[in-house]
Design a protein that fits this description.
15 helices, binds flavin-adenine dinucleotide, 499 residues, five-stranded parallel sheet, globular, FAD/NAD(P)-binding domain
């Protein structure tokens, strides 16, 4: 199949998954990436204490990667050392209370009982069971399927009638479902936060997102050497199979002839021809004409709007003073609703929830107290298209004022002097991921039908496909990987290499 040429624009996880699958099937694959490294949002920043993971910091649903590696004739364990994370996260509240969640249902029962009483433990058991059933209901027909299938959900839903009614038919919002399920407001807040994993507000996202808890509870893995080892190993496998990676090459245009893809034009004016082009950037870039006016209609507007959350992301090295941090820490605010109201109003939340990832070394996932460590802090934010008074100059000062004093008031003092280059803003995310509007997760998950509205692999133009977190099945590292697999398999089927 070496005479069949596929160009992949972007080496995010979706692009890399497709590159691996296609090249190991003997297809001639060329990747064009505007940055100098693979991985897209899985990026690192430099610091005096070494590289800081400045995007995702752990892996979930690692079976999706195992399946991909296997389909390419490889074993993931020959390339990466995955270390299970026992504590999923340590959660802190303003009243001084804290709760660790573990990567198994059973291990959580006692901590929840101690934290909030027997009633809460029973409520947790009920919610856990709902999340598990929802995941089972949605995994094959939605996540694993190249196009979402409603019928199997309805058929299986009949046997699980109560779930379907509770979550889908009543069109419930995640936060409302949690309010009905839990009596302790801290647990409502904790499980509501999972909506932000796919860029949604818990007050506007459908209750189906409860299933994210089930994904987390099945396990979370650190990658020895950092998350960026994943894109590096995927790049190596594709390269070994003959894929050619062109870094520092921004694609300006997708070339069309007779309503079919012909190739691409690079920023430097060079043209490269191919039978198929797979776009791994944000699909909104296509609709905005950033890849040329001829592909503007390749994706419909309703598949990219409304936009998901953006974020302010700190990455720095600092000395934590006398802390009790684990790898993942969440510092909750008092008024969770107000945080998302602020974001909805297009302003920086005055009192945000702060996610703090404390990155240690390969032996110990967290930096020792009073030793210099590497940190990532994430504050949810509105995408720039929703900002009320965008003012790039005020952002840094405001973020500084809401981050470090809050942490200090909750017992975490960090010895550092914050600098502008330590903060990535929604405007910078738009620059890194053109057309995204700073949204980190593509189309927003808000609305009951959002699962069914994301772009599928095949666009409206023959030979032009899409993959990545902005496409079906959705955002997050494993989902983006799955979308790359879907796109590659669509291409293989079109070339009669797969049934
Ligand atoms: C701070 C942060 C934290 C996150 N935390 C988690 C987490 O804990 N768990 C999780 O599962 N997910 C997390 N995510 C989301 C996850 O990182 C993404 O969903 C996933 O990595 C997206 O992959 P992708 O395939 O869409 O490609 P992207 O990562 O979006 O990469 C797209 C690539 O295309 C390139 N590109 C775009 N346009 C062009 C062009 N015209 N020419 C050449 N190249 C181009 C870009 O440079 C980029 O490299 C997080 C994201 C961020 C930013």
């Amino acid at each position: 199949m070496k005479d069949k040429k596929v160009i992949i624009i972007g080496s995010g996880i979706g692009g890399l998954a497709a590159a691996m699958r296609l090249s190991t099937c003997g297809i001639n694959v060329q990747i064009f990436e505007k940055q100098s490294y693979p991985g897209g949002k899985i990026r690192v920043k430099n610091s005096v204490a070494g590289l800081i993971d400045s995007g995702p910091t752990v892996l979930t649903m690692h079976e999706i990667f195992e399946e991909l590696f296997r389909a390419c004739g490889e074993h993931i364990e020959d390339h990466l050392e995955l270390v299970p994370e026992e504590v999923l996260a340590r959660h802190w509240w303003r009243d001084g209370s804290s709760l660790d969640l573990f990567s198994s249902f059973e291990k959580n029962m006692a901590p929840i009982r101690n934290f909030s009483g027997i009633k809460s433990a029973k409520e947790f058991e009920k919610f856990n069971s709902l999340a598990e059933k929802l995941f089972t209901l949605f995994n094959q027909p939605i996540i694993k399927s190249p196009r979402p299938k409603v019928l199997p959900i309805l058929i299986n839903g009949i046997t699980n009638g109560k779930i379907l009614y509770k979550t889908l038919l009543r069109q419930r919002i995640l936060y409302d479902l949690l309010e009905d399920n839990f009596s302790d407001p801290r647990l409502i807040q904790l499980f509501a936060r999972y909506a932000t994993y796919v860029g949604g507000s818990p007050f506007m996202s459908p209750s189906i997102l409860s299933l994210i808890w089930n994904v987390e509870s099945k396990g979370v893995w650190r990658i020895k050497g950092g998350m960026h080892q994943m894109p590096k190993s995927m790049e190596r496998i594709a390269q070994k199979a003959g894929a050619v990676f062109n870094y520092g090459q921004s694609v300006d245009k997708i070339l069309i002839e007779n309503k079919k893809v012909k190739g691409i034009k690079l920023e430097n004016g060079d043209e490269v021809f191919a039978d198929i082009v797979l776009f791994n950037g944000d699909p909104r870039a296509l609709t905005m004409g950033l890849l040329g006016s001829q592909v503007k209609e390749s994706i419909t507007q309703r598949k990219i709007h409304p936009r998901s959350l953006s974020a302010y992301v700190w990455s720095f090295a600092a000395k934590p003073i006398n802390h009790k941090l684990v790898h993942h820490n969440v510092f909750f605010n008092i008024n969770y609703k107000k945080e998302f109201q602020d974001i909805n109003d297009g302003v920086i939340p005055t009192d945000p929830t702060l996610y703090v990832c404390a990155q240690g070394n390969n032996k110990d996932p967290t930096p020792s107290s009073n030793d210099i460590g590497r940190f990532e802090i994430i504050i949810n934010a509105a995408p720039i298209s929703n900002l009320k008074n965008p003012d790039k100059h005020e952002e840094f000062q405001r973020c500084k004022n809401i981050t470090f004093p809050i942490l200090e008031s909750m017992g975490l003092k960090l010895e550092l002097s914050p600098k502008k280059e330590m903060l990535t803003t929604p405007f910078e995310f738009e620059k890194l991921f053109p057309g995204s509007s700073g949204s980190l997760y593509g189309r927003s998950p808000h609305g009951i039908n959002s699962t069914f509205k994301k772009p599928l692999s095949q666009s409206q133009i023959k030979g032009l496909l899409v993959a990545g977190g902005g496409t079906h099945p959705g955002a997050g590292v494993p989902m983006a990987c799955q979308s790359g697999k879907h796109a590659a398999e669509t291409i293989l089927r079109d070339l009669n290499l797969m049934s």
